[in-house]
């Protein structure tokens, strides 16, 4: 009897030890805003929108210690529409992120649907709005489609050495021709005191093997940086976009009428901005410029301003405004984190809660 009790006790202890090494977290963002848009053929639009500052989502992430410095990790994340209660992409479950991987002292490898190094550069380094609000870098930078995230992806992130680390990204096209539909890229990230600099590249193949459709590669190069001087954080970004589908328009539905705008296949993108603590919150500002070097010369300039009033570390109220000046029939629209926008002027008044 005593032997049986001892065995049972040892089993419970072992189970408790294994559980202690496993960590699963439920997290999310709940974001809703009044959004106004004007300047396009749709006229003045006023609506309640989900995720103007940060896309509303619910997710699960977890890790398990495997011993000898090895760790398993996973993330499953789905987007939701707070205004309607729907999944933000019909027919999907974990449409935002879905990956599993292993981490060792040599770095981390993950497989699944993941963000690209290009998008991460804008969100984490170059854009004071974090690609959200009306002032988002999405207004002129090609941060949409598979430039943001891609399925069937394999990623590698190196350990940080003297402030620097490397990321690699490959997304399989899964067609009969290996190169068709694939996307690959990477980034080099460096931090030293108040300075952070990140260089990212992205190469996208849009060939369709089944129909024999072939295009030249779409290539993006992005240099982003920020510098924190305590009372203000300065931001900058410079991008080069070349090739087919390298810089698709956020709103491709001819938002201004007339001759439909042509996406640039040879462009330069510039952003300068800052984020500063003001009162109980943060003031954000940026200016952007698109230099279209094709014969269409469809340039554009934009500016945006926003303020996040922090009620607590998790809850905040925000207001943002942005305007775009399009040239020669360019079709750029004021977006937010989840919508591409319908005109050249837009504002957001919202609330965001994280958990």
How does this structure look, described?
- This protein is mostly beta strands and 355 residues long.
- It has a single domain (24-39, 48-354), classed as Porin, CATH 2.40.160.
- It has helices at 2-20, 117-126; strands at 22-38, 45-50, 57-67, 70-79, 97-104, 107-115, 149-157, 164-171, 183-192, 195-204, 218-228, 233-242, 266-278, 281-292, 300-310, 315-326, 345-354.
- A 16-stranded antiparallel barrel has the order 1-3-4-5-6-7-8-9-10-11-12-13-14-15-16-17.
- It is globular and about 60 Å long.
- The protein starts with a helix and ends with a strand.
What keyword list fits this structure?
single chain; 355 residues; mainly beta; Porin; 16-stranded antiparallel beta barrel; 2 helices; 8% helix; 50% strand
**Uncertain spans:** 1-20
Instruction: Tell me the major beta sheet.
Output: 16 strands, antiparallel, barrel
Strand tally, please? 17
- At CATH level 2, the architecture is Beta Barrel
Radius of gyration: 22 Å
Helix- and strand-based class? mainly beta
Order of strands in the sheet with most strands:
1-3-4-5-6-7-8-9-10-11-12-13-14-15-16-17
Helix content: under 10%
CATH topology: Porin
What is the fourth-level CATH superfamily? Porin
Membrane topology: Multi-pass membrane protein
Organism: Telluria antibiotica
Protein name: Porin
InterPro entries: Gram-neg_bact_OMP (IPR050298), Gram_neg_porin_domain (IPR033900), Porin_dom_sf (IPR023614), Porin_Gram-ve (IPR001702)
């Amino acid at each position: 009897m005593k032997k049986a009790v001892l065995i049972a006790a040892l089993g419970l202890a072992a189970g408790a030890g294994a559980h202690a090494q496993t960590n699963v977290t439920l997290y999310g963002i709940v974001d809703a805003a009044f959004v106004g848009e004007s300047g396009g053929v749709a006229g003045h639009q006023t609506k309640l929108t989900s995720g103007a500052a940060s896309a509303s989502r619910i997710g699960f992430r977890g890790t398990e210690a495997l011993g000898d410095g090895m760790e398993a990790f996973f993330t499953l994340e789905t987007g939701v529409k707070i205004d309607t209660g729907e999944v933000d992409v019909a027919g999907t479950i974990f449409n935002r992120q879905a990956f599993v991987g292993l981490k060792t002292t040599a770095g981390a490898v993950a497989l699944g649907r993941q963000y690209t190094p290009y998008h991460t550069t804008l969100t984490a380094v170059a854009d004071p709005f974090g690609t959200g609000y009306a002032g988002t870098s999405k207004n002129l930078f090609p941060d949409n489609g598979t430039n943001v995230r891609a399925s069937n992806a394999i990623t590698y992130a190196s350990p940080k050495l003297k402030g620097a680390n490397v990321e690699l990204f490959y997304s399989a096209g899964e067609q009969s021709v290996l190169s068709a539909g694939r996307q690959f890229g990477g980034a080099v990230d460096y931090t030293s005191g108040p300075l952070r600099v990140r260089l990212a590249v992205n190469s996208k193949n849009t060939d369709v093997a089944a129909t024999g459709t072939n295009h030249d590669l779409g290539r993006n190069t992005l240099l982003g940086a920020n510098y924190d001087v305590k009372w203000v954080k300065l931001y900058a970004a410079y991008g080069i976009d070349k090739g087919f589908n390298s810089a698709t328009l956020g709103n491709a539905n001819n938002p201004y009428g007339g001759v439909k705008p042509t996406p640039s296949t040879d462009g330069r993108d510039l952003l300068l901005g800052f984020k500063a603590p003001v009162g109980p919150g943060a003031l954000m500002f940026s200016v952007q410029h698109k230099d279209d070097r094709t014969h269409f010369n469809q340039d554009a300039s934009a500016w945006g301003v926003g303020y996040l009033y922090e009620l607590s570390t998790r809850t905040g109220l925000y207001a943002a405004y942005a305007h775009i000046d399009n040239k020669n029939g360019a079709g750029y629209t004021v977006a937010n984190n989840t919508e591409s926008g319908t005109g050249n002027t837009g504002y957001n008044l919202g609330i965001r809660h994280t958990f």
